[in-house]
Amino acid sequence: MTTDVDVLIIGAGASGAAFAWSMADTRMRILCLEQGDWMNPADYPSTRRDWEVRMDREFSPNPNLRRRPEDYPINDVDSPISVLNFNGVGGSTILYAAHFPRPHPSDFRVRSLDGVAEDWPIDYATLESYYALNDRQIGVAGLAGDPAYPPHEPPLPPVPLGLAGETMGRGFNALGWHWWPSDTAIATRDYAGRAACVNLGPCKAGCAQGAKSSADITYWPVARRAGVQLRTRCRVREILVDANDMATGVVYYDEHGVEQLQRAEVVVLACNGVGTPRLLLNSKSPRFPHGLANRSGLVGKNLMLHPWGMVRGTFDAPLDSFLGPLSCSILSQQFYETDRSRGFVRGYNMQVTRGLGPVATARIGVARGDIPWGEGHHEAFARRYGRQIGVGICCEDLPEECNTVTLDPTLTDSNGMPAPKISYRLSENTERMLRHGLARGTEVMQAAGAWDIYSEGPVRQTGWHLLGTARMGEDPERSVVNAWGRSHDVKNLFIIDGSVFVTSGGVNPTPTIQAVALYVADAMKQRLANLFD
Amino acid sequence: MSTDRADSAESSQPLTSEQRAILDLVLNLIVPPSADGRMPGAAEVGVLAYLAAEAPDALPLLRQELDQLDLRSRERFARGYAELEQAERKNQIEAMRAQAPSFLGRLAMETLACYYQHDRVLAGLGREARPPYPKGYQVAQGDLSLLDPVRARGKIYRDAP
């Protein structure tokens, strides 16, 4: 039997870490259970010569390929997009690109402005101070003055544009389109005890320098010093509930695979938009036969994944485009806000990415037939290596109840717990948006001077953004949690990860996930005397 | 890249000398040495050791397909693959590529991974043969005055009720 705690957080990723840090000042007994382990930055691929190959294997973002002991399989056969994640202290921030744009104010009011989906019960103004707090706590780089956003001032200067960023900036200028240096969760100067970025490049395989603001090296050290306990290699199987519809704790498997009971006054889910519905759906009881906190029937529904398009162009001039943070450079939000003349509502972000390393350049070039075997190989490679730039198209997908996370009837993890099954399709609106984005990406490549341009989408291995599967709202029949993350059905159960998103916006969600986690923590602290009323 | 692990794996001789000779010919058909001598051929960068260390599951099929290549060569030309003229070898490989695309496709991908991490190759590309960490790289900050027209156009986000 373990010691009872006041607050039990499940998951030590972006949201769990921010929440734990914020709650630490309550001096409550706070425990976080994490199924993965601490990462050792000395093991990250960038410390090795074979970094490109390691990125695709034990540091693959796809758990079905990575297959670490702490990973759970995900059945994504019924989806054109694979779910990506990482299980460990820091969660998916270990492997995320650190591209860190905020959403727009309009993203919280899509029903009011565009007549689709639903408005969030909170707005940009509600979260604005939490975005800023999060930026300061983790160290966010960027350039103030972006006309695509309400004023905000990142605490650190932007990542370098390099020749590639300048080249694309000129392309956007030639078309009269918006572009701006991206906000990035990277310490571009020494910050809070962390060394500045030295442009290792493969941020998406962990940052050996410690410049990338992953949650294991930002929030967690401070939270633990303030008394929060973090127990790793602990996989929660189910949340327990009593006859009064109150959560009483969880059953989990410890690092030795031994079943343990952990009691808690408050349970907080921070397992991402797939892990959270999986756990809720696996927590069936007579009072909740369809899964915990699921009287609305919406747990696991409305999955949003941000279908991703990629345009890649090759330039004549050597750009050393493989130098710098791989996926962070500049962005364009020229097509972010709704313009119905385009044939769809809502919009997308264009994320300029840098060139690839030599192995990836050669492999993709050969696979596409751009780089031949034998004669002409070296010449074709030289025309591409260091001369390629990408433009990613991050499409806002709207919530649809047919896009789901359910429990797979046969596939299980190493503890016998059912694996999540993903059923997802692109809507006609999203398809149109994606086609528009690929065409505009091609257009800006041409304007920038690229001579060889190809595009594809949706790209399968891009399901990073796991959103919407336990959404917030005021109506218990149309949402899973209320406006401050508390379950409508279980009043001491909170959800703070991307599951609570009502709509997805068209940008990388981690700034909002962490802002929501900080906001929910503050909301709870303000209501401690009557938290369960 | 030359590693102790790779050298050790190579010493276990996963292929016969005949298979090894055929593999080297195939590898140089995938990535030949450059005419100026700056870039080595793929047969010179330890692909077999790399496969033994990184993709040992591929070795049984590799042996089988190399034997098949030699057998087909003998059936068609009455000579082993190693004795063929270069043009004949290319034809045989192209035929095999059509018949067994997954095998040669995987061999090519593993070969490229090994090749483009090798010290000699990186030197030929003008790159230092080292991991990114700890030294990192210098990247030009860039000309932020390019943003002037973006600033001049002003606000593009919508206010929300």
Quick overview of this protein structure:
The complex is a heterodimer of chains A (533) and B (161). Chain A has 533 residues and is α/β, with parallel strands linked by helices.
Q: Care to describe what's here?
A:
The complex is a heterodimer of chains A (533) and B (161). With 533 residues, chain A is of the alpha/beta class. Chain A has helices at residues 14-23, 51-55, 63-66, 110-114, 124-138, 162-175, 219-225, 272-281, 358-368, 377-384, 428-448, 510-526; strands at 5-10, 30-33, 75-78, 180-181, 229-231, 235-241, 247-253, 259-269, 308-314, 330-332, 348-353, 388-395, 404-412, 418-423, 452-456, 493-495. Chain A has one domain: FAD/NAD(P)-binding domain. In chain A, helix 1 runs parallel beside helix 12 (510-526), helix 5 (124-138) crosses helix 12 (510-526) and helix 6 (162-175) crosses helix 11. Chain A starts with a strand and ends in a 7-residue tail after the last helix. Chain B has one domain (4-131). The relative contact order of chain B is 0.13. In chain B, helix 1 (4-11) packs across helix 3 (47-54) and helix 5 crosses helix 6 (101-115). The model of chain B is unreliable at 2-11 (pLDDT under 50). At the A-B interface, helix 2, helix 6, strand 4 and helix 9 of A face helix 6 and helix 8 of B.
Which fold name fills CATH's third level, the topology of chain A? FAD/NAD(P)-binding domain
- Write down how many β-strands of chain B occur, each being a DSSP E stretch of 2 or more residues: 0
Query: What general outline of chain A do the C-alpha atoms trace?
Result: globular
Secondary-structure element pattern of chain B, one letter each: HHHHHHHH
Tell me the overall shape of chain B: elongated
Report the major sheet of chain A.
Answer: 7 strands, mixed
Structural class of chain B: mainly alpha
Number of structurally distinct domains of chain A: 1
**What's the helical proportion of residues of chain A?**
10-25%
* CATH architecture grouping of chain A: 3-Layer(bba) Sandwich
> What is the mean predicted local confidence, pLDDT of chain B?
91
| End-to-end gap of chain A | 29 Å
User: What does the average pLDDT of chain A come to?
Assistant: 97
Largest protein-protein interface? A-B, 69 and 51 residues
Number of domain units of chain B: 1
Determine the oligomeric state from the structure. Answer: heterodimer
Q: DSSP strand (E) fraction of chain B?
A: under 5%
Q: Given the structure, what is the number of helices of chain B?
A: 8
